[in-house]
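Researcher: I'd like a candidate sequence for this fold, 715 residues long. If you have to choose between options at a position, lean toward the conservative one.
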């Protein structure tokens, strides 16, 4: 060996600090699980490989005399270079990182570092060799200590993870079978396959199957790349047969990528997050609108970010897939599949509830019979199968943990050899305490979550029962409201050529149409009560009853006087309430006297349109409702020429106020009148179909904003 008398250059000293400072900070960040750890450590390693080692070789070669010294220098530098890149693979979770890293770790800590310690004793105090060897000892021992901290502290209980995974797989299979039976029964009892509930159920099944299959492909991709098995086998494999259960590196790389190259392709955790969010949005669009908030609250498919106990942001992807063993990630994906099946069941139940009541009663009766038979047959088989799989899993884990314990014992022995660097022990102890504290917190949080989940499920069942009662009550109210509407045959018997387009926004409506015959007079009206849904339906019953009393009990025949008396009766009804009620209705009332060839009309806020010749004419109603108003005045009776070619249109504001079209604006009355005028030569039945198709096309996928009632009459 030659003596080293060359002092290190200033550039080499600067590079040492550029390697050490980012590396130490990055290692501390990694132990604290703070963001940016990988970038800092990667900067230190790349500086070591790309700048420090080349400059050191240039300066150290000047001190080497013999070929043996130069060969030793070259071998040592090569080992350092390869080890540094293996460490880089480990930090970034790239494939083959484990093998690459641990082979070079053996060479480094059993060849290079002992050699460096030997030279520390022999070298001069301020020469190049001493500086280099001190740097190597500090730099790589710190990385080794960090490896021990992250590999030995807070180990996940694989036994518990496996047991939980087996239970989740069984629950997923049971949920899948349950939903399949529900679809089969729905198909059997549904005679008309074009009904809205059946079509929605078909869309729901396709949506769920595609989402579950996507997650299955994610799981298979992990097993294909880590366990090296064919995809066909991976698609059917249970978690108990996974070989590399504790593989941390490739799971993170395959699902998340690295800090510099995050993964966002088809088979990534990022795409999984988008798929789950799309599934939730599509599923909620299929259920009844008034039930969406309840169903959305019951879904256990949140992908929201959150803050940890230190207030630091944690993404959903990092919390579930970053630096997690393969078995844990696999079970997480299975649990998501299970929750998707539960969400499918909630949505399918809601879709069935939206259908015909008699059909629902028959369907749920058959479902109950199928479920009781299915549970009785499968229960014993599931228990036996689960016990067998659990025993196999436990035996396999005992063997794996025995091998793992042997390797950890070797690491501990080696740690005792380098215990001289006691200052770093502080980080080991602190990290262990924090990790154990985190584990205790996770256990407590899990218990709380399980308890909350049970409470939520109980509340969900209660809400479903209450929801069914409410829907049944509203359906009964619909039949009561339909009883006040005049039958189609009644209208046809007095006006043969007519149409009535009636589209309630909800099950029951505030809009209604009314018709009555008194002597030679035939009355027909389109009315819009205050509100829609159940409140509007209750007001419509009051207003309809007032109209009937006016013409039958008080024998009033003039349209303006009819509206005056109707307003009086409505106000009398609402005056009995303790609180002030301002509800009422807008109406367009037409009277046809075929015997004397007379037509009269009166309106409250709503106009009358009629076509004579090539023009559409309008008579505006009085600007006051049938109800409480500040300055009430008598309603005007308008007299209209009796013309056999005239077509009269009575309507409420629901059609013109509907949002839609390309820009999402209202349909408006001008466009409505143009539509009527352009189709005046068609039969009234054809006009009804054109008007209804135009409304549906304009509305598109938007929500119907109000009840719609349009009446057409040709004298």
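Model: Candidate sequence:
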């Amino acid at each position: 060996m030659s003596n080293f008398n060359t002092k290190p250059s200033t550039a080499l000293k600067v590079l040492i600090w550029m390697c050490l400072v980012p590396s130490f900070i990055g290692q501390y960040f990694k132990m604290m699980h703070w963001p940016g750890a990988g970038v800092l450590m990667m900067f230190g390693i790349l500086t070591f490989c790309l700048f420090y080692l080349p400059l050191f070789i240039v300066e150290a070669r000047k001190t080497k005399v013999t070929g043996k010294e130069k060969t030793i220098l070259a071998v040592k530098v090569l080992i350092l270079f390869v080890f540094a890149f293996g460490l880089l693979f480990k930090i970034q979770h790239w494939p083959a990182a484990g093998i690459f890293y641990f082979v070079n770790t053996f060479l480094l800590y059993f060849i290079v570092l002992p050699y460096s310690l030997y030279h520390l004793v022999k070298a001069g105090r301020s020469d190049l060799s001493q500086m280099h060897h001190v740097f190597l000892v500090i730099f790589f021992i710190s990385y080794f200590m960090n490896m021990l901290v992250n590999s030995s502290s807070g180990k996940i209980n694989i036994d518990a993870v496996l047991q939980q995974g087996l239970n989740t797989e069984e629950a997923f299979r049971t949920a899948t079978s349950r939903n399949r039976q529900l679809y089969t029964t729905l198909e059997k009892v549904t005679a008309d396959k074009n009904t809205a509930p059946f079509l929605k159920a078909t869309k729901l099944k396709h949506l769920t199957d595609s989402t579950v299959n996507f997650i299955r492909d994610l799981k298979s991709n992990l097993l294909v790349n880590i366990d090296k098995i064919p995809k066909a086998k991976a698609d059917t494999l249970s978690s108990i047969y996974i070989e590399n259960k504790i593989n941390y590196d490739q799971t993170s790389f395959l699902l998340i990528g690295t800090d510099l190259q995050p993964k966002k392709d088809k088979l990534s955790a990022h795409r999984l997050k988008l798929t789950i969010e799309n599934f939730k949005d599509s599923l909620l669009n299929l259920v009844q609108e008034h039930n969406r908030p309840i169903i959305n609250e019951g879904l256990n498919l949140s992908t929201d970010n959150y803050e940890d106990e230190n207030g630091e942001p944690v993404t959903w992807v990092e919390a579930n897939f970053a630096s997690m063993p393969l078995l844990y990630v696999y079970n997480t994906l299975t649990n998501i599949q299970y929750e998707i099946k539960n969400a499918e069941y909630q949505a399918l139940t809601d879709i069935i509830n939206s259908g015909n009541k008699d059909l629902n009663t028959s369907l749920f009766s058959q479902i109950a019979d199928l479920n009781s038979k299915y549970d009785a047959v499968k229960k014993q088989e599931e228990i036996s199968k689960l016990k067998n799989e659990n025993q196999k899993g436990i035996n396999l884990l005992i063997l794996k943990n025995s091998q793992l314990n042997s390797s950890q014992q070797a690491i501990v022995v080696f740690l005792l050899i380098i215990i001289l660097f006691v200052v770093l022990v502080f980080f080991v102890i602190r990290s262990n305490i924090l990790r154990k504290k985190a584990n205790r917190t996770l256990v407590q949080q899990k218990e709380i979550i399980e308890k909350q989940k049970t409470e939520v499920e109980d509340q969900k069942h209660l809400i479903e029962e209450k929801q069914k009662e409410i829907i049944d009550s509203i359906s009964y109210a619909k039949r009561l409201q339909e009883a006040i509407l005049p039958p189609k045959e009644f209208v046809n018997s007095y006006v043969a050529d007519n149409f009535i387009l009636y589209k309630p926004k909800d099950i029951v409506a505030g809009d209604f149409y009314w018709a009555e015959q008194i002597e030679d007079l035939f009355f027909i009206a389109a009315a819009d009560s205050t509100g829609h849904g159940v409140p509007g339906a209750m007001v419509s019953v009051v207003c309809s009853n007032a109209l009937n009393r006016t013409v039958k009990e008080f024998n009033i025949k003039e349209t303006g006087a009819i509206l005056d008396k109707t307003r009086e009766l409505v106000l009398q009804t609402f005056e009995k309430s303790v609180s002030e009620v301002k509800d009422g209705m807008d109406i367009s009332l037409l009277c046809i006297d075929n015997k004397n060839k007379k037509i009269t009309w009166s309106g409250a806020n709503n106009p009358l349109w009629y076509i004579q010749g090539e023009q559409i004419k309008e008579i505006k109603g009085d600007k006051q409702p049938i109800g409480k108003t500040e300055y009430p005045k008598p309603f005007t009776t308008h007299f209209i020429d009796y013309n056999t070619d005239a077509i009269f249109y009575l309507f409420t504001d629901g059609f013109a106020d509907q949002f839609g079209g390309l820009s999402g604006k209202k349909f408006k009355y001008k466009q409505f009148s143009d539509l009527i005028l352009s189709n005046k030569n068609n039969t009234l039945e054809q006009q009804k179909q054109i008007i209804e198709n135009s409304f549906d096309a304009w509305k598109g996928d938007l929500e119907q904003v109000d009840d719609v009632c349009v009446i057409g009459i040709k004298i």
